[in-house]
Design brief:
71% helix, 2 strands, two-stranded antiparallel sheet, mainly alpha, Tetraspanin_animals, 287 residues, transmembrane helix
């Protein structure tokens, strides 16, 4: 009977321990996804740093840090499950809750700052375009933006007419506004027979909005996964605590049963309980 009462708990706990290890493997993958999303946001800021508001990089940096912390949390969760430590498992749940709050905050921040960042990007982009002819960093940034986003000027290619009119160049637009042809991995420019029609202000606005959308969506999906992990860890902690409590109760009951079954023998009961036997020595004769 004792074996049948113990085995269900042992089997259940083994299953829970196995599942929480699998969940922590999922959290490692989650951490990689968080780092990937954060790196993407940060790389976008780094590529367009000359026209981006510095505050735009904060959600990406925050997610990179959170992704790294999740690796440590996953290790703690595995150790707590394998060692059946209630303290470690509940600490794992608490740290996971903290990272959940940070991720949600990053998503909310990105969504809330979307309009502010878009306005700042438009203003910085306009200023940087007007610095194109005399600032090397501005020229590199604008060429990169126009090539990657396939755009030209602020609102359109006509913006370059005023900017380039006082230069010695006969070109009406920078070469980065021209359509690109790639052959065998080499990039060549046409003589501007085709110019990107879209202005870069619209292109940068889409970059900001898409980045905020991806960040918010990723944060929500990861938050749901971590919420499940938090509930699961709390359940495991309660099961470990209950199992340990049952073990202590069984030990206490066994100790009590042993103490009750033991009846000490007093001196007054010695003769009554164990009567004394008198022995006499008999003489034997040898022939």
């Amino acid at each position: 009977m004792a074996q049948s009462s113990v085995e269900p708990w042992g089997l259940s706990l083994r299953c829970i321990k196995t599942l929480i290890v699998l969940v922590n493997i999922l959290f490692v993958i989650t951490g990689l996804l968080i780092i990937l999303i954060g790196s993407t946001i940060y790389r976008i800021y780094d590529d367009y740093a000359s026209v981006m508001d510095p505050v735009f990089s904060s959600p990406g940096t925050m997610l990179i840090v959170v992704g790294a912390i999740i690796f440590v949390i996953a290790f703690l969760g595995c150790c707590g499950a394998l060692k059946e430590s209630t303290c470690m498992v509940l600490t794992f749940a608490a740290l996971l809750t903290t990272t959940l709050v940070v991720e949600v905050s990053a998503g909310i921040t990105a969504f809330a700052l979307k309009d502010r960042v878009t306005a700042a990007v438009s203003q910085n982009l306009n200023q940087t375009i007007h610095m194109y002819t005399y600032d090397e960093k501005a020229r590199i940034s604008i060429d990169l933006i126009q090539e990657q986003l396939r755009c030209c000027g602020f609102n359109g290619y006509n913006d370059w007419e005023e900017i380039l009119q006082n230069t010695n160049s006969s070109a009406k637009v920078p070469q980065s506004c021209c359509s690109i042809r790639r052959h065998a991995g080499r990039t060549t420019y046409t003589p501007c027979s085709r110019i990107h029609a879209r202005g870069c202000a619209k292109g940068m606005e889409l970059v900001v909005k898409n980045s905020a959308y991806y960040l918010t969506t990723g944060a929500v999906v990861l938050a749901l996964l971590q919420l499940g992990g938090i509930l699961f860890a709390i359940k495991l902690g309660n099961m470990i605590r209950k199992r340990k409590t049952e073990r202590e109760q069984r030990r206490w009951q066994m100790r009590e049963s042993l103490l009750r079954g033991y009846q000490p023998i007093g001196k007054s009961d010695l003769i009554r309980t164990h009567p004394m036997i008198y022995m006499t020595a008999s003489n034997t004769t040898r022939n």
